[in-house]
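Troubleshooting log. The previous structure file for this entry was overwritten by mistake, so regenerating from the original sequence record. Sequence copied from the archived sheet and checked twice against the printout by T.R.
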Amino acid sequence: MKLLIANDFFAPTIAGGADLFLKEMAIYLKDEGFEPVILTSSFVKETGFKTYRIESSPFHFRHMRQIPGLTLPWNFSTAVEKKVSGIIEKEKIDFFYANNTYHLSFSVLTAAQKMGIPSLLDVHDYWPICFSKDLYKDDRGFCQKGESWECSTCLSKKFSAPLFPLAIPLLRMESRMKKDVLSGMRKVCHSEFVKKQLGKYGYESEVIPYPFFGKHGTREHGKRKIVFVGRLTKNKGADLLVPLAQALNDVEIDVIGKGPLSSKLDRKDIGINLRGFMGDERFDILKGASALVAPSRWPEPFGIVALEAAAYGIPTIALKGSGGLAELVSKEGIGKVCYEDGLAECVMDVIEKTAEYESRCKAAMKNYDKDAIFKRYRKLFETRD
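Regenerated output below.
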């Protein structure tokens, strides 16, 4: 069986966790006798699989080829549709597995639909219902309106461009055309929270959690220490770390990551150790922690960072309103969820109960076994309805 796997990026060219997930998925499928073919953007170099690349528009902003509303003619492109149709015909594709395809072109999806290829859309974030893909307003938090005229002002801030209010008709047109394309596709997502948000806009989906690919280990018991892992921005709650450090007694905070708030977190005088960005070596820091603090404000689609901690028996403290992250921590009992003003108290409570949480964390990991989760996907690929 030949599958065409479409995504904006593909490891080792990585923009997020979905790209790593798809690399592991492709390896699994190949080992199981499937023939994965990759369809991705021109940014991607070697993938280790047969790969086709698309440069869907002449523009790009950072890593993005498509800009909401402004690149509508390229997001629905007959040239792209024709190219993808040619790939499907040439490779004799049996199944189309679509992922983050916004920056490829919606015509990637329409090509498969017009050729009658069975398909599945894997929703890794909120791009089907939010132009900026995060359902988050930097000044007001979680956005529950989805795509509306207010998106133009939000996009202007995020892109640092005043043009979007002028593009409201184009944004509305893109939203309608996108819904026409997506409505006919089967969908999966990775948390009940995302399923609920998609459901508000008429999209049904099945929840399949992300599998865990990381390292398993044993927590090193020692001095009281907590760890933060992530981009150092306000929406990730990095601004809460200084007041948290000031409120805690005899608890160090290791901060792993980089971002706009880096300079404000270089505070050894109050027990904050700024480690910067780290790859797999971050696990050497993580395993010595009493807890992971993940005070994200935006509605995370999932919470893979909490699984990374749980694999070492380390509990996670998350904030209410953090979407799939708070859902995972609460559902599996691998930590505690609290409000911002109760963060310090919550951290201390979790630290005092690390032994209790350690057993819960280890027990929860069986629910995220890679082979078991990929078998669920395989069943979907082999169902042609």
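The chain has a mean pLDDT of 90. Archived copy saved in two places this time.
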